[in-house]
Each structure stands twice: as structure tokens, then as C-alpha cells.
Design goal:
With 479 residues, the chain is mainly α. The protein has two domains: 98 residues, uronate isomerase, domain 2, chain A (Orthogonal Bundle); 314 residues, TIM Barrel, CATH 3.20.20.140. Helix content is 49%, strand content 6%. The protein has a four-stranded parallel sheet, covered by helices on one side. It has a three-stranded parallel sheet with strand order 1-2-3. A two-stranded antiparallel ribbon has the order 6-7. α13 crosses α14 and α19 runs antiparallel to α20. The longest helix is centred in the middle third of the chain and has 22 residues. The radius of gyration is 23 Å and the shape is globular.
């Protein structure tokens, strides 16, 4: 027995039960198991995520376990930070690690494994360890080095390169998230590479260009003008530049645009007022209230463009970005310091849906972290407008109980066909299959209850399970 085998044979074992997350009631579990098994191996559609296209274009081995499993995943790092562990110890905000830093960060995670009890993060990480790396050793301070070495050994092999994992995970579609001024060269490389048979598409994310109160807004607008070749010193010029960049993204395979602002309001302005406020923004003289008004008009223009060019409009408003200024200053955005807010949709999106809600080419997906609006607002909207789909739980509420609450809140009004399909929204590449698997298990449990209550036949439940996994994302995102 070599040293690594000996290390891996010692210590507590992972208990990754095949029926995990399925209902505990034996009768329901039997039904749920059959439903889950029918969808377990179906392809993964990931129409909103943050995995860099460059990883797949370069197809180079991943550097180390920490930069793959810990650093990019703010779900993992934020709980450690909440327990007093500095983000610098986890490599957050860094592109390279110092000697021993990667291993030390991994030791920190394993030593604090108890923090993840009861969270979906534990489900994801355990699934990654057991089902991707083939390891059954539970993380702990004592097992950290053995796990680290075993993972590092596997990452050095061809089977763990990005493209091999893409095929192994059964990914049918992977969307990235991209700045409107990005040249999309890595997407172009993938599209031209005949040895890569997957589908990786960009997503148009113009948030920073719709927020004239931002300190860097004018700099970004200048850049928008440069890359589009359009004079952006007028509101009409901004619109033309945006149309140009959306066309560029569409030509490179984009299927959607993505928007996250402080609220969901989308309201047009008359041309004169739009030009006036735009001029104030360009001169740095716009007030916060005026900036909000202009931003809502900008978003209305994005909706109008979506009705014309066919990109699916996705909205996930009401997040307090970078809640802790010192963390943002030290580590940048997207490190776990974004906190949910309450949000209202019904009045906020009425002008947009009045204009485009029944337009044949218009699709909009509404996401929220505010669970109170599912039954009250989003399900009724999706239950009337042919263009509206409800985004499944994501981010803070892509957890088992929240997913079950979502199905209960939405289904009675909007049915099973008016939701988006699961959205993993992750930078943590190896967590993608685990996140989708969790969603399939929870939906199987929900459908099993309906069968047991004689509200659905088993055949109907099986058909619905397949629709939730593959039919809905294809329908909502027009694939």
C-alpha cells in the first residue's frame, strides 16, 4: 500500500447516500426514486453562468484544488469569512498563489467543514468529491492533505481537463456572462475548433452601461463608442451602439441578455427627456434620482431590442451589491458580499409587458431572491403573458427547502411549463453537475407527492420531470 492509498484509507468516510434529498416517507421515496432515475442522466442546459470561455478554449489543466473548488465559489468562501477567516487566506482576489497558500486554504476549508452542515454547499462539495474525484474521505483537519494530494493528482490527468469534464458532465449548452465591449475571441476560438463539439455561448451583460450614476459610466460609454464605431454623445447614439453590440453578440451565438439592477422598474421616456438626462449623465451632472429614471429607460430600450433581435431578456433585480465597502475595495466584486433586497414586479414591469408582453419574438425570465413574490406576482404574470417565464431559485435560495417552496408557490398558478429550467449561476465549474442534480432530486420529490395524492398520474409526472430538465430551458431560451 503506497503512502497516498494509506492516507485515503484512514479517517471518517463520506456518506453520499443514493437517495439523498429524496422524501423520507417510504412511499414517496419509491416514487421519487423512479422519477429521479428517469432524468438523472439527461443533458445539462446551463443558460446563465460565469465559467470563463477561455478555460475551454485553452483546455489547460487546472492549476490546483483551491483555485478550482474554493476561490471562485463565493458560496464556499462567504461562510468561512463569516466565521472570521480572512478572504486573503482563501486566495480571493488573487490570480496566483504563493508557496503553500493553496494547500493552506484547502486545509482551512476542511478544518471548518462543520460550517456547511445543513447547506446546499455541503451537498455540492460532497458530490464533487465522491462523484467527480471518486473519493470517499470526509473533509477534516486530519484528512485535508490526503484529499488535496488526491485531487491534485487527478487534475494533472487528461480526464480532468476542461473539455473532458464538459463531455463527462453531459453539458448540452453552457452560457458565459460577458461585457458588451468584449471581443469574444475565446468564443470565436471554440466555434472555429472542430475538435470541440460542445456549445458555449456568450451572454450580453450591459448593467454598467445602464447606470449613469456610476463613477466609471462615462469611461465605459466612451469605450462602447470605440468598439461599436458609433458616436455615443447622444441618447440616440447610445441606442445605436447597443444595437450594434447586441448584433455582434448574436453573431457569436448569444441567446440572452442579462440584467441586475436595484429594482425591476422598466419605463420609457419621451425622446426629449431621454436626451436631456443623457446629456446630464455625459457631463457628470446627473442626480441619483435622474440616473434611476434614465436607467429604467435604458432597460426599456433593451426590452425593445429583445423584441426585435430575439435575445431572451433575463432580469434578476434587487441585490445590494458590495454591501461591505472594505471587502469590495480589497477583493473586488462577486466575493459573497451581495445581499438580497425586497422587490416588486407587478407595477414595475407593466410598461414593458404592455409594450412587448404579447410580441411573438419577446421572451423575459424573471428571477428573484425575494420568495414572497413567487405566488403573488411572478406566477400570475407567467400564467397570463406568453412571453414571461419564472426563473427557478438561484443563488441564496437554490437550496432544497427553497426549491420545494418555489414549486408549491408557482405551479398552481403557472403550471410546470412556465419556469426557466434550472440555473446554476456559478463560477465553480465542477459544481455544475451537483447543482443540477440537486434540482432534479427536489423536483422528483415534489412530483412524487402529487402522484401520491392522485393529482398526477405517474406517466404525467414522468413527462413533467423531463420538461423541467430539458423542455423548459429549451422553450424559455428558444434553443
Amino acid at each position: 500500500m503506497d503512502a497516498m492509498t494509506s492516507q485515503l484509507s484512514a479517517g471518517p468516510r463520506l456518506e453520499v447516500h443514493p437517495d439523498r434529498m429524496l422524501p423520507s416517507d417510504p412511499a414517496l421515496r419509491s416514487l421519487a426514486r423512479e422519477l429521479y432515475e428517469s432524468v438523472r442522466a439527461l443533458p445539462i442546459y446551463s443558460p446563465h453562468g460565469h465559467v470563463p470561455a477561455q478555460w475551454l478554449a485553452d483546455d489547460e489543466p487546472f492549476a490546483d484544488p483551491t483555485s478550482l473548488l474554493i476561490t471562485p465559489d463565493h458560496y464556499v468562501t462567504r461562510l468561512l469569512h463569516a466565521s472570521g477567516i480572512g478572504l486573503d487566506r482563501l486566495g480571493v482576489g488573487q490570480t496566483t498563489f504563493g508557496p503553500g497558500q493553496s494547500r493552506e486554504a484547502f486545509r482551512t476549508l476542511c478544518a471548518h467543514w462543520h460550517l456547511y452542515r445543513g447547506t446546499p454547499v455541503r451537498f455540492w462539495l460532497e458530490s464533487e468529491l465522491a462523484e467527480i474525484f471518486g473519493l470517499d474521505l470526509a473533509p477534516s483537519a486530519e484528512t485535508a492533505d490526503a484529499l488535496y494530494d488526491a485531487i491534485a493528482e487527478r487534475l494533472a490527468t487528461e480526464a480532468f481537463r476542461p473539455r473532458a469534464l464538459y463531455q463527462r458532465f453531459g453539458i448540452e449548452l453552457l452560457a458565459t456572462t460577458d461585457d458588451p465591449c468584449d471581443d469574444l475571441r475565446h468564443h470565436a476560438r471554440l466555434a472555429a475548433d472542430e475538435t470541440f463539439t460542445g456549445r458555449v455561448v456568450p451572454t450580453f451583460r450591459p448593467d454598467a452601461y445602464l447606470e449613469p450614476a456610476r463613477a466609471d459610466w462615462n469611461t465605459r460609454i466612451d469605450r462602447l463608442g470605440e468598439v461599436s464605431g458609433v458616436d455615443v454623445d447622444s441618447y440616440a447614439g447610445w441606442v445605436a451602439a447597443m444595437e450594434s453590440r447586441r448584433a455582434y453578440f448574436t453573431a457569436h451565438g448569444a441567446i440572452s441578455s442579462d440584467h441586475s439592477h436595484a429594482d425591476a422598474r422598466v419605463e420609457p421616456l419621451d425622446d426629449a427627456e431621454a436626451e436631456r438626462l443623457y446629456a446630464l449623465g455625459r457631463h457628470g451632472a446627473i442626480t441619483p434620482a435622474q440616473a434611476d429614471t434614465l436607467r429604467r429607460a435604458f432597460l426599456f430600450e433593451q426590452a425593445r431590442m429583445a423584441a426585435d433581435d430575439g435575445l431572451v431578456l433575463t432580469m434578476h433585480p434587487a441585490v445590494y451589491r458590495n454591501h461591505h465597502p472594505a471587502t469590495f475595495a480589497g477583493y473586488g466584486a462577486d466575493v459573497g458580499a451581495d445581499i438580497p433586497l425586497q422587490v416588486e414586479f407587478t407595477r414595475a414591469v407593466q410598461p414593458m409587458l404592455a409594450a412587448f408582453g404579447t410580441s411573438p419574438g419577446f421572451h423575459v425570465v424573471f428571477f428573484t431572491i425575494d420568495e414572497t413574490v413567487y405566488a403573488r406576482e411572478l406566477a400570475p404574470l407567467a400564467g397570463f403573458y406568453p412571453s414571461v417565464f419564472v426563473g427557478v431559485p438561484w443563488w441564496f435560495i437554490d437550496a432544497p427547502d427553497a426549491m420545494a417552496r418555489f414549486r408549491s408557490s408557482v405551479t398552481e398558478t403557472a403550471g410546470f411549463t412556465r419556469t426557466s429550467g434550472f440555473i446554476d449561476d456559478t463560477r465553480a465549474y465542477l459544481s455544475i453537475p451537483a447543482r443540477h442534480d440537486l434540482s432534479r432530486r427536489i423536483d422528483a420529490g415534489f412530483l412524487a407527492r402529487l402522484v401520491a395524492e392522485h393529482r398526477l398520474s405517474m406517466d404525467e409526472a414522468l413527462q413533467s420531470a423531463h420538461e423541467l430538465v430539458t423542455g423548459n430551458p429549451r422553450r424559455a431560451f428558444k434553443l
